[in-house]
Amino acid sequence: MSLDRSRRVFLKSSALAGLVFGAAPRTLLRSVYAAGPKGKRKTMVVIFQRGACDGLNTVIPYADPGYAKGRPSIAISPPGGGREGSALDLDGHFGLHPALSDLLPIYKDGHLGIVHAIGSPDLTRSHFDAQDFMESGTPGQKSTTDGWMNRCSGSMGETDSKFRAVALTQTLPRVLRGSSPAVALARIDDFHVREDIAMSEGPMAEGRPGGRRRPGRGAGPNGNGPRTAKPGVSDESSAAFEKLYAEAAHDMLGNAGRETFEAIEALKVADPSKYRPREGVTYPRGRLGDSLQQMAQLIKADLGVELGFVDVGGWDHHTAEGSSTGQLANLLRQLGGSMAAFHRDLGDRMNDVVVMTMTEFGRTVRENGNRGTDHGHGSVSFVMGGPVNGGRVHGKFPKLSEENLFEGRDLPVTTDFRDLVGEVLSRHGGLSNLKGVFPAYEIKPAAFVGALRA
């Protein structure tokens, strides 16, 4: 195989999302965390709901008259009265959307908490900007080059794991880009070196961090659709690939290549692809269920996962959002079923795991003329796990009267998402250097909402 042809060998994104690592200096890309302390690892898994989830129809303030008043056709009925599709009562004021029934037992058992009126303080209503700010952890600052989860990884001390920070995504998400190693993989049961004409998104693409992937053969019009699988490269080709990158000792691409092969070997040894969920546990079909099942596989394979990230889109409902049924209900059923399956699958391991949901902003209090909702401000986050102070709705939730609404239309943000992240990292992960995670924001324990037990 020629040298030029060898350079086209890579980990295909449809198999391992390029198995890409965060950007690193042009010196030997080292494992920043070699050999951490013995004992159980603490893990945080973030579920990002892309598109701006309607928090008011997810956790319903049914006792507030302003809720039903603003939503004559899409409001969820209050609990009681035997009405089908009514809210599932939580505390006499809030109720869960009926499609989230799988989460209600976890809430009642004290392992699921809710933070309402949470979000970013930035005022943008742009999906792109809001997601970027939430993943960078620096709302309003577009110059930030790395993500808060990557900075968090760099603040956690040393480890020998190649999978401390891992995303079950096609490409490395913004939140995990930076100078610390981070892995993005699409599937863990279909990985090996493949050949194609494109490089995956990440530091290896087009010679720059966060480079855009060019469409390859079999890709959709945006370069991220289904691809036609190609036979795996032979052992001889794989050896040539390793040799090629080993010779590039001072080149970032070569170093990333070596990290890639080390990660492959770690996966081979752990062999998480043979794992099956616990008896009686079935994950919902779909992207989120599949991603959380694979995250459970990685955690239970003891690969050293401490920061996990998955995302799911489709939450932007300007038209025909639905009430107890419809577009939002379908997504919430996937969310609740997937989270509940993950919780049951991990069993006792959930004592060392916290799952947190995030979304870039909420929706308007009032429905629009198309029976949907427009871009808003505050939304809702779920926090699930053993150390969670569950069975309650946390945060300051204002009365939905016009004088209390943000810009006269939205649920205001009363809890900065960074305070909730900081609480999880501090109380669950034992991380004291929160300034290293959010350098432009001072997190004070007094601002913690109590979502985790102190």
Describe the secondary-structure layout.
Layout: H1 3-6, E1 9-10, H2 13-16, E2 43-49, E3 59-60, H3 65-70, E4 88-89, E5 95-96, H4 104-108, E6 112-119, H5 127-136, H6 148-154, E7 165-167, E8 183-184, E9 194-195, H7 235-247, H8 252-270, H9 287-300, E10 307-312, H10 327-346, E11 353-359, E12 379-385, E13 393-394, E14 415-416, H11 417-428
Parallel strand pairs: 2-10, 2-11, 6-13, 6-14, 7-8, 7-10
Antiparallel strand pairs: 1-9, 3-5, 4-5, 6-12, 11-12
Walkthrough of the structure:
The chain is α/β, with parallel strands linked by helices. It has a domain at 43-189 and 284-447: Alkaline Phosphatase, subunit A (3-Layer(aba) Sandwich), CATH 3.40.720.10. It has helices spanning 3-6, 13-16, 65-70, 104-108, 127-136, 148-154, 235-247, 252-270, 287-300, 327-346, 417-428; strands at 9-10, 43-49, 59-60, 88-89, 95-96, 112-119, 165-167, 183-184, 194-195, 307-312, 353-359, 379-385, 393-394, 415-416. Strands 2, 6, 7, 8, 10, 11, 12, 13 and 14 form a nine-stranded mixed β-sheet that branches. The protein has a three-stranded antiparallel β-sheet with strand order 3-5-4, with no helix packed on it. Strand 4 and strand 5 (95-96) form a beta hairpin.
Quick description:
The protein has 454 residues and is α/β, with parallel strands linked by helices.
Strand portion, in percent?
5-15%
Number of helices: 11
Quote the average pLDDT.
81
The level 1 CATH classification of the domain at 43-189 and 284-447 is Alpha Beta
How many angstroms separate the termini?
A: 59 Å
CATH superfamily of the domain at 43-189 and 284-447: Alkaline Phosphatase, subunit A
Rg is 22 Å
| Helix fraction by DSSP (H/I, runs of at least 4) | 25-40%
Order of helices and strands: HEHEEHEEHEHHEEEHHHEHEEEEH
Look at the helices and sheets and give the structural class.
Answer: alpha/beta
The CATH topology of the domain at 43-189 and 284-447 corresponds to Alkaline Phosphatase, subunit A
Please name the CATH architecture of the domain at 43-189 and 284-447: 3-Layer(aba) Sandwich
